[in-house]
Amino acid sequence: MKTLYVYILECADNSFYVGVTNNVGRRFIEHATGIHDNSYTNCRRPVKLLFCKEFKSPIKAIKYEKQLKGWTRAKKIALINNDIDLLHDLAKCKNETNHNRFLKSR
User: Fold this and answer.
1) Which of 36, 60, 71, 97 is the most buried (most CB within 10 A)?
2) 64-72 long-range CB contacts below 8 Å, 24 or more apart?
């Protein structure tokens, strides 16, 4: 089974880039050197590797990458900082229609 890695880079413009690869070192060098002209990170260099997680299942790695891409900046920062409590708090639904809000108001 092939090992894959999901990673988060911080770009020079303070944006985050989330990706998946089978070789983090090689992929980081590609981002850092701008080898791919049309890539998101090419005009946002330099980049810093802030987070990396290993997966033995390609399906799980790709699913996790897509999940992280949908997260807010605050959730990504909590993950990078390994602040699990904040991550859980940020994941809670805060809509007026949330069933927990309904239960608390009764």
Assistant:
1) 71
2) 64/6, 65/6, 65/18, 65/19, 65/20, 68/6, 68/8, 68/18, 69/18
